[in-house]
Amino acid sequence: PTVGSAPVRLACAGTIFGVYEETESMENCMVDEVAVDSQCIFNTLQPGTSLVASGYCLYSSSCLFVFTVGNGVNGFTYDRSIGEFVLTHPNMQVPKRGKIYSFNEANRWLWDKPLQEYITALQTGENEMKSQYSARYIGSMVGDVHRTLLYGGIFGYPSDTKNKDGKLRLLYEAAPMALLMEQAGGMALTGKTRILDLPPQAVHQRVPFLAGSTDDVMEMKSYYDASEDPEIIKRCLARLEDDKRA
After folding, report:
1. What residue stretches are annotated with the Fructose-1-6-bisphosphatase class I N-terminal domain (predicted)?
2. What are phi and psi for residue 63, nearest 5 degrees?
3. Is residue 1 in some structural domain?
4. Is 245 a residue whose pLDDT tops 50?
C-alpha cells in the first residue's frame, strides 16, 4: 500500500510491500470460483515469519528503495542520470540505542497507560539512559521508519481508546516493516508481542506498531510487562490466537 498519501505533496509518502511464501494450496488460486477464491484469501493469512522479502520506496527529495530478502537490509537511491537505483546504504543497521522518539502526541492521552509513562520518562530523562530524548514525527510511516533505521530510537503507531487494535494493517504494513526492522538489528512489537509472530485473523486486521532500536523497544516493553491492566493483557492474548477469518 501507499502510506502517507495525504502529505504526498510534501514529498514524504511511501509504498510498502511484502512477499510471502507460496503454499501448495495456492496453485489453484487463478480459478474463478467463489469457493476457491475464499480458500485463497484464507491461505494468504500467514504470519510475518513466512515473509521471504519486504521493503519500501520513499518518494522524497530523492527516491529511495530499501528492502530485505532475509539476509540484512540494503538501501538504494534512484539516479536519474542513468535511470537506475544505486546502492547507497549497504547493510543498514539500527543503532542499539537512539535518542529520538517518534509518535503523534496529539493522541497521547488516548494511549495505553504504560506507553504514556514510557514517553514521559523519555521526555524527563527518567529513563534507563538518564537522558532526555528528542521528538521527531513526519506523519508518514515510511518516512518515520526510514529515519529510525538510520538514526535509531523508537517509532510508534500505538493503540488508543479510539483504535484499540491500532490502525496499521498487519498483513501488508506492520509485518513487512517489522521484518525490515529486525533484519537491520532492531525490534518491532505491539507493546508486548513480537509482530512477526502474530497470525493474521483477517486480511485487513489492524495492530499497534512500536519499533526501533533494540534497547529502546525493550525498555518500552518493560512498561507493558509491568502493567496489570486486564484489558491490555486480554488484547495481547487475543492477537496470538490462530483463528483465521477471511
Report:
1. 12-90
2. -100, 120
3. no
4. no
Q: Which ranges in the chain belong to alpha helices (H)?
A: 34-43, 113-124, 141-151, 175-183, 214-226, 230-239
Q: Which amino acid is at 156?
A: G
Quick: pLDDT tens for 38-61: 777 778 899 999 999 999 999 988
Domain interval for residue 77: 13-91
Average pLDDT over residues 142-165: 96
Q: What is the pTM of this model?
A: 0.89
Length of the chain: 246
- Confidence class of residue 5 from pLDDT cuts 50, 70 and 90? low
State how many domains the chain has. Answer: 2
Beta strands in the chain (DSSP E): 2-3, 13-20, 51-59, 63-68, 73-79, 84-89, 100-102, 134-135, 154-157, 168-169, 187-189, 206-207, 209-212
Q: What are phi and psi of 107, to 5 degrees?
A: -100, 10
State the amino acid at position 103 in one-letter form.
F
- The span from the CA of 127 to the CA of 175, in Å, is 28
DSSP 3-state assignment of 240? coil
- Residue pair 185/210 in contact by the 8 Å Cβ criterion: no
